[in-house]
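User: Fold this; C-alpha cells only.

Assistant: Input:
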Amino acid sequence: VQLQASGGGVVQAGGSLRLSCAASGPTLKPMLSRYVMGWFRQAPGKAREFVAVIQWSGGSTIYADSVKGRFTISKDYAKNTMYLQMNNLEHEDTAAYYCAAKDTLVFGVTSPSWYNYWGQGTQVTVSS
C-alpha cells in the first residue's frame, strides 16, 4: 500500500485545514477493508505523536485528547482516501502531519511504531 498525504499549509490561529491521504496499490480494495489508518504529527525536536485513527471497515475512531472536538477523521471508501478536518487550529498544532496504515483487525493502537505503511509528511503551520 502506498500513501500520499496532501493539504498542508499556513493558516492563522482559529482557522481550518483539511488533510487528505490517498491510498493506492495492487488489489487495494479487498485489502483496505481490513486496514486501520491514522494521522500522526511531528513538531521540530519532538517525537512523532498520535492524532487520530479510523477503522477502514466500520469507521470506529479514536482521537488524541489534544484534538478532540476540533479535528475529525473520516474516509471515502470509493476514493480510497482518508481525511483529517482540522478546525479551530492552534499554534501548538504546527507540525509535519503523516498518514499511516496497518493491515490488521486490531483497533485502538496509537503508537506510531505499530504502523507499517507511511505517507510522506505534509506541513501544517499555524501562525498565532
